[in-house]
Each structure stands twice: as structure tokens, then as C-alpha cells.
Amino acid sequence: MGCLGAVFVLVAIGAFVWGGMAGKWFEGEATPRFYGGDGDLPFGVEDPTTYLGWISAASLLLAPVLLALSGRAVRAWRRRTGPGRVAADQVWAEGWYCGRCGTVHFTGERAMSLQEFRTRVWSAGGYGDLAVRHPAV
Question: Domain check: are 14 and 74 in the same one?
């Protein structure tokens, strides 16, 4: 959601700059047709820059909402995983990853897949149930 919020911020900035360059908001008269169209735009509008203000306003309203929801999700994740982080880091440090075979090894144990490793580490931290919802790729 945070990335989508950032995209909406960029859209809002782009719409504002495009409208400013076209002179739509700074002149009292309509702008010339610079887009090369034949005037077949929806709702009888003859200039595409007419919509730029609405696009910019909608983007500026949606961006903070999406960024706030993203921050809220991150804080919820950290509240859930924070208390067991030290125990999970200890298990993580004991294993080593073999890039050639794509498995994780612990001393004296069989090789395990990345999903098994994730489940083991997250279970040590107390949030192993999340490993099913977030599979390792």
C-alpha cells in the first residue's frame, strides 16, 4: 500500500506540473489544443487539461490514506514479531544457506527447504503461524 501511495503522490505532482506547463491554472483564458486531438473527449470537454485538477486532488487525497494504512500494517507486524525477535535471530544465525543446492543446513541435521527454515525460525520467535500465510519463494 505504501508503494501505491507513493505512486499517487507522483501522479498528483505530475498532474500539477502538466497543468502548470499548459498554463491552464495560471491564465484566464482556455489553453490552445496542444495534444493534437480532434476534440472527442468525454462530457464535451475540448481540452484534456480540464481534468488535471481533479486528478491531482484525488491523488492527493488517496496518497495519505494509503500511506497511513501502510504504516499501520507495518506497526501491527512489528508488534506481532518484535517480542520474539531475539530468539528468532539466534536460530537464524545457527543455520547456513547453500546457494548451490538452495537449502539451509544446521550442524548435524538434514538439509531443509527455505519454507521449513522460515517456519523453524518464526516458530522460535513465537509467530510460526505466520509462515503458512507468507511462504518462502
Answer: yes
Residue 81 CB-density burial (10 A; 0-12 exposed, 13-18 middle, 19+ buried)? middle
Q: Which three cell numbers stand for residue 112?
A: 531443509
Asked if 69 and 42 sit in the same domain, the reply is yes
The amino acid that residue 7 corresponds to is V
| Residue 70 burial (10 A CB sphere; 0-12, 13-18, 19+) | middle
- Does one domain contain both 28 and 71? yes
Mean pLDDT in runs of 10 for the chain (137 residues)?
84 79 58 50 60 81 90 90 90 93 93 95 92 88
Domain that holds residue 19: 2-81
Longest Cα–Cα distance in the chain: 80
Q: Alpha-carbon distance 60 to 66, whole Å?
A: 10
How far, rounded to the nearest angstrom, does the alpha carbon of residue 109 sit from its chain's CA centroid?
Answer: 38
Check whether residue 92 and residue 51 sit in a common domain: no
